[in-house]
Every structure is written in C-alpha cells, then in structure tokens.
Amino acid sequence: MSATVATGTTGQQPAPDDLPPPRGAARAVWKRRLAGAGVVGVLLLATLVRGATATAGDTFVPPLGVDVPTSSAKTITVKPGEAGGDFDGTEITVSQTRDLGNQGITISWKNAPSTPDATIGQNVFAFMQCWGDPDAPDPFHEGAAKDPLWGRETCQFGALLDTPVWGGDKAPGGGTIRTVGINGLPDPAETLPPDAVIAPFRSVKGTRIGHGGKSDPYPGNLDPQTTGSDVIMSEYFDKNKTNEIPYGYTAGDGTGRVVFEAQTDMEAPHLGCGLPDSGGVIQPCWLVIVPRGHHDPLTGGELAGSDTPVNGSPLAATHWKHRIAVRLDFRSVQTPCPIDQAERATVGSEMAAPAMQAWQPALCGRTGNVYGYTPTSEDETSSAVLGSGDDSPGLGFTSSPVVGVPGGPPPVHAPMALSSVVVAFTIDNQVNPGSTNPEEELLRARQVNGMRLTPKLVAKLLTSSYQRDIPDGSKAEHLKDNYRTILADPEFITINPDFRFSRANRDIQPVMVPLGGSAANRAVWGWILADKAARDFLSGVPDPEHKDPVTGVTYHMKVNSFYQDFGLDGVVPDRFPKSDPTCSQPRPDLVPELKVCIFNKQPYTSSMTDGAQQTLKADTHSEVEFDEAKYQSSDHQIVTLKRAAPQTKGNRWVMAITDSASAARFGLYSASLLNGSDPTDLNAYVTPTKQSLQAAVAAMGPTANPDVLALDPALKKPGAYPLTMLTYAAVDPSRGQALREAYAKLIEFAAGDGQNEGVSVGNLPPGYVPLPDSLKAKARSAAEMVRRGWTAPPTPAATTTTAAPVTGGTLPARGSVPSAAPTSARPSLSAAPVPAARATDPEPVEWAQRYLLSMILGAGLLAAAAGPVLTGLARRRERR
After folding, report:
1. DSSP tag of 571
2. pLDDT tens, residue by residue, 260-281
3. What is the three-class DSSP state of 543?
4. What average pLDDT does this structure show over 749-774?
5. SS3 of 545, please?
6. Could you write out the DSSP letters of every residue in 235-304?
7. In this structure, are residues 731 and 331 in contact, taking their beta carbons and an 8 Å threshold?
8. Which UniProt keyword terms apply here (predicted)?
9. How high does pLDDT run on average in the chain?
10. DSSP 3-state assignment of 785?
C-alpha cells in the first residue's frame, strides 16, 4: 500500500487450575473482590503510600535505551481510504531501520481504532519479516504469470502460534497460519490457483515449499489436509524460532506498542538479512505490517460492536493488499576485519559484551588489531590476566579488582563502561473482559511499562518462595501458607496498584537467572542483604497474616525453607542457587519414572544476553509436560519432557535478571528498584536511566583497590540506581611491548570515540551511559601506564617476612555482608564464575562445546553449595 513516510525510534497455556472462569463467573468474582477489598485497598493505599500518588495508569520513565527513536526511525501515516478505510490517520513509527543486528525494534502507533475487549479479531496488526520487497515486481515469473502478491512467499509467518486465552473462540480464524481463502471460502482477490491451500514459502537460498495443491504439492507429497502449514514450515522456522507477531493490539486511547525481533542470517538463514552477496552488497529485509480492521474482508460489512472476528490469515490476498512495508538495512554478519591482522585476545565480564560487540569492527580499522573477546567467569578473568606468556589474554573485563601476586606486576585498571544490572520483563496487562471500570479500561491491551520491586520481593522471587515457582508447589507442605504468585502478594500490589485489576489466575513464570557466579549477581544480593526487611525474610520471619477476601484463605508467607538463612553467614552470595528438591510426576500413570524438578520448571539462562532475548520472546525454555507424541512414535522407548511454547502476546509474564545494555538491545522495560528504607514511599523507587546511573557513579567509593570504584548498597543516595556497575579493563603491564600497545589503543578508543552513543559500528550501544570526564581521564592515564610497562624489581635478600600484595588493596575471595545501616562497610565485589554471551554469536554446537565443561562444573558447584544447606535443614528438623 502507499503511505506517507517520514524519517525520524506464542504461548504456554495456563495450567488446568489456572484456566479463567466463565465470563459471568469472572465478573461475579471481581465484583465480590472489589466490593470486599476495594474500600480496604483504597484505605490501605492512602494510609501506606506517602510521597507519591498510587493510581491506575501509573506512568514510568522509560529505562536506558528503550523507546528512543534513532536517526533512521520511520513514521508511516495511513492515508484516507487505505487499509480498508479503518485506519485513516493512524501513525506507525518504527524506531530503527538501519544498522540493524539481531535486536528488538520498537513499533508504536497512535490514532488507531481500539481492539475490542471481547475479541482480538478486530483492529489488530500482524508483523512479519520478509527477505523480498513486497512492492517490487515479481522476479520469478514472466508475462501474464507474474504474481503481484509474490512478496508474501518471502515472509516468515505461519508457525501456528497459540491464540491468546482472552481471544478464545472469537479470535480470527487463520490468523496465525498461511492459509489462503477466508472462512473456507474463496478469496476473490487471490492470485494463486484455485487448488492452493497456503501461501507458498521461498527461501532466499532458492528452495521452496509449494502451495499444497495438486499443481504445486508439498515436499514428499504430504497431504495438505492432514499436514499443517506449521509442520511444513518447521524446516525453516517454528514456534520457538519465528519472530512473527500475529496480533498487535490497540488500547482504548488508540495507541499500541510491540517489540519486534529483527533476525539476521545467523538466526534465520532462510531470510539472509545482513549477508553480503557475491558483489559485497549487504542484503536488506523488509518489515511487513498487515492491518486487520473492523469490516468483513469478503462482504465489506461493518463488524464493529459485534463479537465477530475479521477472519483470514494476514497472507490471504484481501488482507495482504493492505500491507505496509518498511525496508530494514542490516549490518554485515561477516566481520570487516582483515584475516591477516594480529588478533589480541581479551576475556571477561559479560557486562562488557554488548560494548565489545559494537567496538570490535571499528577497532580493527583504527588500530590495526583484531580484538577477540571471550566472556569468561571473573575467576577465569583473573587467571587470564595474571597468566604468563603473550599467548594468554592479558586484558580482562571485570567489575572487581584483579589482585596481583606478591612480587608480580600490579594489574592496571582502566574504566571502560558504565551500565547496570536490571530486572527486565515482558508483561501484558490482562484485565477481565466486560468490565466498565474506567481505570481498567486505561490498562486494556497495553503492555506493562513499569513496576516497582523491593529487595524483599526480589528475595522472594530468587528463593522460589511463591507456590507456582516450583513443580506442584500448591501441594508442597513447606509452601502451604505462601501466595501462589507475586500477583497475589499484598506487598507487590500496594506499590504496583495497576496490577490489582489483573486476572489473578494468570500464567506467571519464575524469574530467569544466569548460571554461575559473578560480581553482577553479588550486586543483586548486596542490595537485598542491605535491606532489613529482606534479611528478616531470609532468616525465616514470616509476613503478617493476610486473609483473601474472596476465597477466605489465610496466608502467612515465609521463605522457602530450603533457602532459609541463605546469604546471612557473612558472605554475599555471587550466584542464584536452585536448592528446592521438590519434583512432580507429569504422568505417574504412564511413566512414573519421569519427574519435573526445579531445573525443568525454571532453567538457568546461559547468559544475561540470552536471558534478555528469551524475555523478549516470552520463552523460558521450561520443560514441564510429558512428550507423549515422542513416547508413542518411539514405541515407548523415549521418555522425555517437551519444551513449552513461548507465551502468546496478551498472556505474557516473563522476568529475567540481565544487564541494561542487553535489555535495551531487545527493547525490554526494567523494574524500578527501591533505593531507600521506606517501601511505601513511591519516590524512593529508581528506574535505570542516564540520570540515575550518573547519580550512582558519583556516589561510588573505592573497593579493596582504590583504582576500582563500586556502589555501596547500604548507601541510599536519592535518585541513584542501586545496581549501577562500572566495568574495568584489568591489564597485565608486564606483557610484551606489541601486546601492551594493542591493549593501550583499545583502552584509549573505549575512553574516546567508544563513548559516543549510537547504534552504528564503534558507538556506545544503548543501555550504557558515557563515562564521566574524570573516569575517561583515568582510563587514558591507565593506557599510558600499560604502554610504559612494568619491570620486575631486583630480587631482595631472603628475609623471614612475607611480602604484601603489590596492588592498592586486597580483595577477599567473597564479599562481606553489608549492614543495613548507612555507616556499614562497602561490600567487596570480587571475581566469581559467570557464563556470558560471546560478542559474536557462535553456532549452537560451538557454544555447547565451549561451555559444556563449565556447565558441568557449575552444576557440581551448585550441588556442593546446596549440600550443607540441605544437611543443616535436616539436622534442624531432627532436633525438632
């Protein structure tokens, strides 16, 4: 379709006991809930909340790098009469169209007709990525055979994503597949032969799947009547790989927002986006938006005010002709660095991964060096920096000081990047259909753009203290008095009043956390342990009793007993253990030996970057259901669990601990964290923004090494984000001159042009904050120290005393517990193992080979750490 363009930024179904009640019952339940609790809730909020107003439609400042249009943003204005006339004047903004990699693109719109509360079948958008320009002439046929709709053959769509629960039987038929025709009737606008079943798919590599009719059959002559198009397309994409969005909803005020995952040739080789052709031209792709209004696609009849959906796939000819296409230009997926340049190895903290990924291509042209980067645990970073020989990495990224050995070279620390740890989320407002409450209507069809979390609430999440966090948690004796989810917790609702309208029985997933240990993880626990309420909770102090006004059930929540006293022994933890051994049997009647345990229900993420990407996809990788199909097809030989499908838009509730740059990369909102002692003061909650990170870095003090700064979690500076972190380059100054020169140039680039914010190669990516001038100067000074090098002093005569470390201070193997009092000592954030994403994404097999041993060792460490806890609990129970 034509439009005015201005250049300027699937799912898991609820468990059986979580299915929504009939609509009438739901209304009755909520009338009782509001009648029984509404007045009390209002009085409670008015009594408890000070310093800010808690009302529906709560607004939050966008976190770092999110919802910020880039210079390549495009705004499309739908002209009168286009899109069937249902979207006249609608403005759609795509936040970024150039310099793209595998990332999120924010698509927002306004002045659109709202999606009805009773059906998702009207006034919605579908989004997909295509490798062919749908508005270009057909390049595959000649003469009269040219197909004006050929572009739909190049689109990644039709994985049969699950329909949102609230859509029900009023969701548009065919809305998630490639079927042509509408409601089983021929489409008069169709250009395919009459026997066509689906819109064909053609890979950019040349292979093709036909339309399923006799004139163009499926591969292997599979029967199109018994073989779904999602099965046929699984050769290229499926529910877990696709980036299609079948339903983009519009709220009552005419606005909407989705984050679309742009996929490169690495993620979707059948699309080839970002792959240079034989002439070196980098292949673009197209974002295609298909609107679905409120008129019958075949008759043109008005459907507004009815529950009747506008049926048909977005690839059906009548819908496809209203498409809006936006060109997407990608960065090359191939490295621009010459293969004959010297490679200089670096390792270290994942907090540096997004920056290094952006800097690497620019550095080889600026410095004549290729800088390799391998994320490693912080323990491994220290070993690498202190290792001997120019073939071992002499530069490691860390947020904790690397302590030199007695008599050895003192590692030089240069500040490189300022970012933060965040609790990122993808959550949809899910209010009850049929409500006439104006506050609820403000939230309908909107994605949640902010929430507040206290250290105590995060402690509850990390200790699996809600019933739904473990398998069959509602039957677990040690959680019998606990809330089913955080949504039922009055402490959460008090500071997040919008959620009081949310359906109580929705599918809330446990928070995702990275495997292994790190200074980033320790920062989270340091913030938690600096809070008295959180420490009391971890020690076993229960919440006040709370009686649900609807069910009459009385709750008396306390910490999951398998985590009691965790972190209270004077050591700040650096990892997130999964200590609860509770398991369930998904099919005890058929395969009693098969169990679902906590690692199946809440798997670790392999890195913070992966955690952010999984949050965008609403895909926790959980495995909680028996794969009966595989069991039957293998003649009962294969007994296994199947991976749950991603949650569908409208049903999503996924959270993860990740870093601010990864969250920004995938367009994720982040929680505002309490930076104060009064959880009811809404002004004390701080979002990770440029201003809040700058306030935090200004409040940082020295660690064991005075050259390395960190934030004291007990220091509650107003406006400072409490999980702000500086990432340093720790360098061994005794390495060879060529290697030292290369590392000095890297530091100088990072402190110079590398601090220029942007999305182009060499820029500081969104999610980071440029270093203050004082820290840039420290980095340049450190580069000179690296360049000058270090020479071992003459060996002194033997004495009976022991030489002290040559660094500015020592660092304990683990940090000490901070006091909740402002005068407490700052915790030392020491090195600890943490897996991280490579700056250049490896192939899956390569990743498995690289990290398999680390994962096995990590599992062993977790088992070893859990052993004493479980033993202590058993002994306490015996004494009782």
Report:
1. B
2. 999 999 999 999 999 999 899 9
3. coil
4. 97
5. coil
6. TT--TTT---EEEE---TTS-EEEEEEE--TTT-TTT-TT-B-TTSPBP-EEEEEEEE-SB-TTT--B-T
7. no
8. Membrane, Transmembrane, Transmembrane helix
9. 85
10. helix
Question: Per the structure block, which two tokens stand in for 630?
Answer: 């595989």
**In the structure encoding, which two tokens stand for residue 483, read together?**
């809330």
Closest CA to 696 of 420, 398, 400, 424: 420
Cα 157 to Cα 162: distance, rounded to the nearest angstrom:
13
CA of residue 219 relative to chain centroid, distance: 36
Q: Are 609 and 663 in contact (CB under 8 A)?
A: no
Average pLDDT over residues 614-637: 95
Element (H, E) at 41: helix 23-48
- The conformation of residue 374, written as its DSSP 8-state character, comes to E
Whole-number Å distance between alpha carbons of 189 and 141: 19
Share of the chain above pLDDT 70, in %: 83
Residue 789 has pLDDT above 60, yes or no: yes
pLDDT at position 861 is 40
What is the phi-psi region of residue 66: left when phi exceeds 0, alpha when psi lies from -120 to 50, beta otherwise? beta
Backbone dihedral region for residue 259 (phi beyond 0: left; psi -120 to 50: alpha; all else: beta): beta
pLDDT tens digits, 93-135: 999 999 999 999 999 999 999 998 878 899 999 999 999 999 9
Rounded CA gap, 86 and 290, in Å? 12
Sign of the CA dihedral running 577, 581, 586, 592: positive
Note the pLDDT tens digit of each residue in 210-244.
999 999 999 988 888 888 888 999 999 999 999 99
Total count of residues recorded for the chain: 880
d(CA 857, CA 693): 35
How far is Cα of residue 833 from the mean position of the Cα atoms in its chain? 21
**How many angstroms separate the CA atoms of 129 and 151, rounded?**
11
DSSP states of 667-730: T-EE-EEE-SS-TTBGGGEE---HHHHHHHHHT-EE-SSTTSEE--TT---TT--TTEEEEEEE
Distance CA 69, CA 90 (A): 18
The winner for highest mean pLDDT among 245-249, 376-380, 404-408, 789-793 is 245-249
Rg (CA), the chain: 28
**Six token digits for residue 845:** 């097999």
Instruction: Give Cα separations from 669 to 39, 64, 95 (angstroms).
Output: 31, 9, 15
Q: Rounded to an integer, what distance in angstroms lies between the CA atom of residue 322 and that of residue 300?
A: 14
Joined together, the tokens standing for residue 817 give 């517990």
Encoded amino acid at 348, one letter: G
